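In the previous chapter we treated chains in isolation. Here, by contrast, the input contains two separate entities that must be folded as one system, with a combined length of 816 residues.
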Amino acid sequence: MPSDGFNPALLPAGLADLLPPDAAREAALVEAMLAVFGSHGYERVKPPLIEFEEGLLAGSGAAVAEQTFRLMDPVSQRMMGLRADMTPQVARLAATRLRGVERPLRLSYSGQVLRVRGTQIAPERQLPQAGIELIGADSPVADAEVAIVGVEALARVGVEGVALDITLPAMSPALLDAAGLAGEERAALARALDRKDEAAVRALAERAGPPAVFLPGLLAAAGPADAALRALDAVALPPAARAIADNAAAVIAAIRAVMPALRITLDPVEFRGLRYHTGVAYTVYGPGRTGELARGGRYMSGEEPATGLTVYPDAVLRAAPRLAEPARVLVPVGADPAAAAALRARGFVTVAALGAGDSAASQRCTHVLRDGEAVADPASSGAAAPFQTGADGAPSFTGAGSALSGKD
Amino acid sequence: MPSDGFNPALLPAGLADLLPPDAAREAALVEAMLAVFGSHGYERVKPPLIEFEEGLLAGSGAAVAEQTFRLMDPVSQRMMGLRADMTPQVARLAATRLRGVERPLRLSYSGQVLRVRGTQIAPERQLPQAGIELIGADSPVADAEVAIVGVEALARVGVEGVALDITLPAMSPALLDAAGLAGEERAALARALDRKDEAAVRALAERAGPPAVFLPGLLAAAGPADAALRALDAVALPPAARAIADNAAAVIAAIRAVMPALRITLDPVEFRGLRYHTGVAYTVYGPGRTGELARGGRYMSGEEPATGLTVYPDAVLRAAPRLAEPARVLVPVGADPAAAAALRARGFVTVAALGAGDSAASQRCTHVLRDGEAVADPASSGAAAPFQTGADGAPSFTGAGSALSGKD
């Protein structure tokens, strides 16, 4: 450790190392999901980590402006930003270099994003993202496609039984508009909706009169999509709100046509979430307590209608089942390299002993190459011993199985 | 375009978008190479893009200190760096959280690195890296293993016929030391070696006396490894230089034992390259004019002997053969989703028509889903039409085939 007392194991808050086997698992999950995106015609783009801030913070990028690290470009003497979201970059590409490609345009991406500060709930300041954008189409089937492809990608990596939670961020504003609500009265009702304070919503809405009076009922209708859609049907919505409701019904019908068993919930008057959404917005929740796995919805990509979904691979990593690691086979000094290659071709991991000191146990191998075959190592009794990784300033942990393992 | 005249298509110098199909190709290449690394027991780690600068610039990181972007951490009020190389991060991990894992430790990684400035030859300021580090072993077979695994990874992605160029960065200093050369005399000889100016090396070395007199001959011996090794054998090297030569011979013999056909060159007195190398250093050149694909060698990982190789996926992308893209099949409105899913399972890309306006031609599809089968679209005559992508401030280009295509 240097004499200034710098602890080399210490990383800035919210930044972490991903260790074996999680780093390999995350990469495999991302590529498997991108393969699903590709199979539906979403073509991969890779924008740079850094851009001029004007480009990065345009459009939907404004939502993450405060979370964007800034850097001075010594070449141009202009400010650059370290991306906090990839969607604005895809919008930039669609509007510039891919402007001449016929619409709808389907693009996919994966990469790291960085944030200036974490939150208490989400302390991470570097996050992986993987996603799709469908640009130049504004029909309900476009919204449905993006949700369907996202759910299929999660299923491909073993995350089954997800729930799709749909919100209509424009619905409450449409009802408040139609009720002619403004100023403090409108703000109070919006706050009550935000808190899901049904009693307050009821009191404020009754005072405001129609069509705000529908708000408490619609707040209570949040839940399984069919019941929520019936609640929307049952009231005399003003035209703008009716169009939003009809669109939601069409999106949900288009999803059900392909995925009849998918659990869909609808919260008609919820309006949290990314403020740039212009139509349906959705969140994909994993089974059990695995939380938000993806988020998306309709927005404007520059001047074009678009719909997209961002998957959070770090959350998917927590939700996805662990696959069995391949067996590790120690290759003794002097063994035939072709025999080791043959084992690798069969899916084994081979670890070459570099000297007499390298044993199956020291190299966490369950097998040893002997006479061209992977023979279970008697010392390991078929399973590698768990071991501890040392850590300075970080808790020690015990990993089991054949790979290094750890949690940040 | 905003009124301040900012051109949204303009990226900072040395930063670029990777478009279809190159972004997908690069990702596939990286994952295929990481799979080869994994099959040899190299376990993947994923350090963060940003760390405290003390950690990032320690050890071999000092070599890229000037090229490292600095950022103030608003949380700790300390300076962080945006990594310009991943090797120092792997060394940090090995020395801290993985300190307790038995050696040798095999780690692999892939990710993006950033540089403050590009050079004329290498203008890129964001580069992908993929690599392996073998930590805690100092034998020639360790050096050989890293080179072999790297060459195998390149072969896996279709890059055959590479050449491995070995240098011995410590050889010239050892000869200059043994000749007792210092000051301006030493500097002049070092410069002449650096320029490969044989006449100047000869003149300066003769004046310096033994064993510097071997330098011109060894400079001329650069080339196929066997001849260069014979040239080293033919002269009475001082002990330190002899040890370096014997080690090189052992590394080359260990590589040949596994890859007898690999083209290996040896430049005994070349000492360019990464200054932190302590033993053999190597560069892997692609066939033809494809240039440097990987670079590595022996170094100190903190207090531990280590050897590693960094592959440059952007260079590999240029050197690797293009694989055929899967056929794109238009799925007409109202077609059976199960039929489209069956085509995807067979390797087709399906593109859903979202309305009557979406045709095979507009969606660059060569086939249309009809009666459950992918039928060649008569309009496309079996091949999608090339198209042009529009670009603001960037040259237009013509792509051919079924995917978006472009060059930065």
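Residues 382-403 of chain B have pLDDT under 50 and may be disordered. The radius of gyration of chain B is 26 Å. Compare these points with the single-chain example from earlier in the chapter.
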